[in-house]
Design brief:
- This is Metallo-beta-lactamase domain-containing protein.
- InterPro entries: RibonucZ/Hydroxyglut_hydro.
- The protein is α+β, with helices and mostly antiparallel strands.
- It has one domain (about 1-75).
- About 30% of the residues lie in helices and about 30% in strands.
- It is globular and about 35 Å long.
- The relative contact order is 0.29.
- The model has no long low-confidence stretch (mean pLDDT about 90).
Length: about 80
């Protein structure tokens, strides 16, 4: 995490990611938390990590995809 002039930016690596052909759905925090990941060995740990990132980040840089504004933070604006 880095504090920037845009707020807290988290480099989330593969906590959040999309396939090259997949549309990046970023408008719904619950959908982000529950996004299916066929490569994870512990789905509950992944969801816990996603929740933590969504609690602290203003902006998220995913492992694959474009940086996006945290939808949970947008709800509070």
């Amino acid at each position: 995490m880095a504090n920037t002039d845009k707020g807290k930016v988290v480099v989330a690596a593969d906590i959040f990611w999309w396939n090259d052909q997949e549309k990046q759905q970023i408008d719904d925090a619950e959908a982000l938390i529950n996004k299916e990941d066929h490569f994870t060995k512990d789905g509950e740990a992944l969801k816990k990590s996603r929740r933590k990132v969504l609690e602290i980040a203003d902006w998220i840089i995913p492992g694959h995809g474009k940086m996006f504004r945290n939808p949970k933070k947008e709800e509070k604006i």
